Amino acid sequence: MRAMVLLKPGTPLQLRDLPIPAPGPGQLLIKVAACAICRTDLHILDGELTEPKLPLVPGHQIVGRVVTSGSGVTQFKPGDRVGVPWLGSTCGCCPDCNEGRENLCDRARFTGYHLDGGYAEYAVADQRFCFALPEGFGDLQAAPLLCAGLIGYRSLRMTGDARRLGIYGFGAAAHIIIQVARWQGCEVYAFTRAGDHEGQQFARQLGAVWVGAADQLPPDALDAAIIFAPAGELVPASLEAVRKGGTVVCAGIHMSDIPSFPYRLLWGERVLRSVANLTRRDGEEFLEIAPRVPVRTEVQLYPLEAANEALADLKAGRVKGAGVLVVSP
Ligand SMILES: [Zn+2]
Ligand SMILES: [Zn+2]
User: Fold this and answer.
1) How far is CA 146 from the centre of its chain?
2) Distance from the CA of 267 to the center of ligand 2, in angstroms?
3) Which of 69, 300, 304, 324 has its CA 20 to 30 A from that of 122?
4) Residue 93 Cα, ligand 1 centroid: separation in angstroms?
């Protein structure tokens, strides 16, 4: 099969011809239709996440169809469409797993990081961590739901019942979550890089009541903010924009260092927290809500072989909505 492979962090992905993987017990063999790209993939390629399997097939927003399965598979059958997210497996027996926090399991294995992912024509995945996908979404449109959507949704949930919500960084996750937030009755304030007129226009089209640069203050104090961009300086900036008792959620897996800031920005019972990974329950909830909103994903398409170009575009802020690799049209 054709696969884009990371041999060493800091080097581009290489197109390789690999054997089709064999599904083990409980695993599905999936013919990949599409795989969305994610900023986490960049952090892996750049060596900011330091424990990838090598060589590695990245990609953790996989949409495909079951070809065959290993022993003991009962949830899916050949021909079923499935989605594979970042959470690839957990230990299933630690306190975090037992108490509804499987996203924090120390022995969790992640797709496209510890396990080969979807930048390839075939992938294997544990059936227990795969999702059935809502029918109203084509393969290409469904792919970004699997991380941008799921982890975005978990981040949105952590903002509680915010009415005035700030979103810092208007990429794949933001363009999905603004739709869910508005559906829930939030007013959304979108913050982009200074001078990113295209991003600001996109946020306005999706219903942001206010758009501005990340160092600007909105006209009204926010109840909560989600930071999707990996820039530590957004932490003090967003705390400044949030009211007393408000919450700032850092949604990314990696961020540049947070500059020191005066305690008054946190004072007043403001809450600063991160969101890590996802639980299967987040996925089930979000995939149930997405067609009711209904979420419309904007996708920028690339052939599998152009994965390096797609990631370069993501890094440079040239992707509108979500970048998706078309693997088997
Ligand atoms: Zn566990
Ligand atoms: Zn991701």
Assistant:
1) 7
2) 32
3) 300
4) 5
pTM over 0.90, yes/no: yes
Ligand nearest to the CA of 91: 1
Distances from the Cα of 112 to the Cαs of 86, 237, 293, in angstroms?
7, 32, 29
Contact (Cβ atoms closer than 8 angstroms) between residue 109 and residue 88 = yes
The alpha carbons of the chain give a radius of gyration, in whole angstroms, of 19
Give the integer Cα–Cα distance in Å for 240 and 218: 10
Q: What is the pLDDT, as a whole number, of residue 329?
A: 76
What letter would DSSP give residue 302?
E
Q: How far is the CA of 106 from the centre of ligand 1 (A)?
A: 6
Q: Quickly state the pLDDT bin for 118 (edges 50, 70, 90).
A: very high
Beta carbons within 10 angstroms of residue 315's beta carbon: 13
Q: Are 144 and 299 in contact (CB under 8 A)?
A: yes
CA distances from 174 to 72, 74, 205, 285, 286 (A): 38, 35, 13, 18, 14
